[in-house]
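User: I'm writing a short report section on ligand binding and want a predicted complex to refer to. Could you take this sequence and pyridoxal-5'-phosphate and write out the structure as tokens? A short remark afterwards would be nice.
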Amino acid sequence: MNIKSFHPPQRVLMGPGPSDVSPRVLEAMSRPTLGHLDPVFVSMMDEMKALLKYAFRTENELTMPVSAPGSAGMETCFVNLVEPGDKVVICQNGVFAGRMKENVERAGGVAVMVQDEWGRAIDPQKLEDALKANPDAKIVAFVHAETSTGAQSDAKTLVGIAHKHNCLAIVDAVTSLGGSRLLVDEWKIDAIYSGTQKCISCTPGLSPVSFSNDALEKIKNRKTRVQSWFLDLNLVMGYWGGTTKRAYHHTAPINALYGLHEALVILQEEGLENSWARHQKNHLALRAGLEAMGLSFVVPEGERLPQLNAISVPEGVDEAQVRALLLSDYGLEIGAGLGAMAGKVWRIGLMGHASNPKNVRLCLAALDDVLGRLKAPVQRGVAVAAANAHL
Ligand SMILES: *Cc1c(COP(=O)(O)O)cnc(C)c1O
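Assistant: Sure. The structure tokens for the complex follow:
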């Protein structure tokens, strides 16, 4: 064998995640590894919790990164809050709520699915009706930012309905954190999980989570043990929780945490509201360019995510060939459709560090060229100018 070091090419990541990582984050990750109980590292953990509270807009004491990707944050919420027999109402308007169902059932719970059209926001009235029909429900769960379709739901209203019916609310904010308005305390969200590789501009592999006091009470008073040893918060809290002496649970991913710390410092420097506004501005510019070409959005205006733009593939165009040419000729990655939308849409991400005017122009110019070469029915030479009017 003569295998050499791996040197990945430089890409522009404009898909559904991972998104481009800030060079400052990559540099932070290359700093010297410390022991996971080193006092210097422990003080960095305290800063990390403060930074995550800032990003989530919460005072929740139990706010920390799970040592695994967004899917593990999802699982942390469900395995800790769902006890065998618990009924959980799940609003589904895309792929990720399907995974919530899997999680509920594997934790021994009963999932009641409330179906909405893919590409639309969740209909609060349907949740209200489902909770009236299921007065024994204990938890409501939904995805704030459906990355599979590009739709944004009204989390504040949905959480309000859950509480009116005495349910805890679990919210997936993997794609919303840092990219669009999210107020954990003001909206009274009980359990929330996110990811580092979308609008936080960090590498994949960590999942920030936060739990309200009501959620914490339920976790502490469980009648049965959490079925997952690794994700059992009663155990994890011995390392991440409170200000008491920290004990070994698992070896924290030290250098990955340096990266998240730096990513959150960058977010704090920019300001959370400014980050939301930047995502919105670049979305409007991209939108102007795409619409000038004659391409159309899947999600109706007013329900669109600024950080994930799902657009319909024009008739007769091989969507995979377009993505392949963007990657080979421009080093640009955009996303394919997922689940029911496979083959029908492209998903263009403008997430975190990647949400910038240069990427908006690059993507539009590259699409103009590639779609033109494939003789797709689009208006040529107008997209970048249309976007420029917004930048
Ligand atoms: C990406 C994503 C996840 C899963 O996150 P991973 O880091 O890939 O495990 C969950 N929910 C939503 C809405 C996502 O976009």
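A remark for your report: Residues 17, 69-71, 74, 96, 143, 147, 172, 174-175, 195, 197, 204 surround pyridoxal-5'-phosphate (CB under 6 Å). The chain is about 40% helix and 15% strand.
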